[in-house]
């Protein structure tokens, strides 16, 4: 059984070690995409003990909070954002179980999590009018449907599946190896390729473990904010990873522009325009990191069960700001890297374009523009943001 870090500092040390182990293979995993399942990297994640850091103390875990989770996700994402995204839904599901799971459900699944057995997700569908307009159904204890963007499901021990039962949406938990469960590797996108978030098909799968999911969003909640916090951390991690890659390349390989050489500058790090661009980008990355930390601290104050709609709004909007700004900076950093490092840095052997591709792909997970909209609507018109899972 993995050793679960018990404190914030222990979790960060573990995450830093995991990131160090993941970073050398990140480019290769990106190139391989869905052709090669990154089992070794995911084994490192699952055996790290980090999957259980948010399991409540009363259920056998350390009960570490949003600050720890955000920093853990950021550190891993700086090394490999695809691997960092794999457990994103896992952490959301741990939160949901902590609040809405029955004692029996918590006992069974938290024991699995503490043993390093990851929960994947099968929540998204295509063709509906909105996220909860589902065709997957749970009828007489049997689950049938098709899901898409199932990040983490392919290599998980369990899969959480949203489905309609008696007019309500439920969350059903099924073993990954159960009869009738099939997860495909049909994941062909430009970024976050190693997440292998393919199609999952459930055919008459027996379900023993489930709870009402509709009720989660019928009261003020922070599950959307906490889920988005990890997404924000992934974006900020990508930005930091791109900045670090630029720094390493500038120090080791880059040459100054021809005009800079003519002006008397002998290295890229002496080029005044490189210095300006790097300093500006580094400042924006640090600002994104600070905004992420501020959002995590707000969620710490609000708590997993907010006192009311105003408290829930405060948490949601803090994370919305961090996610929106972090996404912009990540995309910018992935592009600015090449302006800093020059033509030679575009060589395929370096795979430095993965930072932009990962940031651009992940940044459209949910609309950033609406986050700014809700921030403005709250400040200007005292309008609370909507109560759903993406804010």
Automatic annotation (TrEMBL):
Keyword Cell inner membrane found: no
Highest taxon listed in the record's lineage: Bacteria
Gene Ontology molecular-function annotations: 3-methylbutanoyl-CoA dehydrogenase activity; flavin adenine dinucleotide binding
InterPro entries (UniProt xref): Acyl-CoA_DH_C, Acyl-CoA_Oxase/DH_mid-dom_sf, AcylCo_DH-like_C, AcylCoA_DH/ox_N, AcylCoA_DH/ox_N_sf, AcylCoA_DH/oxidase_NM_dom_sf
Coiled-coil regions listed in the entry: none
The entry's keywords: Oxidoreductase
Keyword Oxidoreductase attributed: yes
GO BP field: L-leucine catabolic process
Pfam annotation, one family: Acyl-CoA_dh_N
Domain Acyl-CoA dehydrogenase/oxidase N-terminal: 10-116
Domain (Acyl-CoA dehydrogenase C-terminal): residue spans on this chain: 229-367
PANTHER family: ACYL-COA DEHYDROGENASE, ISOVALERYL-COA DEHYDROGENASE, MITOCHONDRIAL-RELATED
Name the UniProt record assigns to this protein: SfnB family sulfur acquisition oxidoreductase
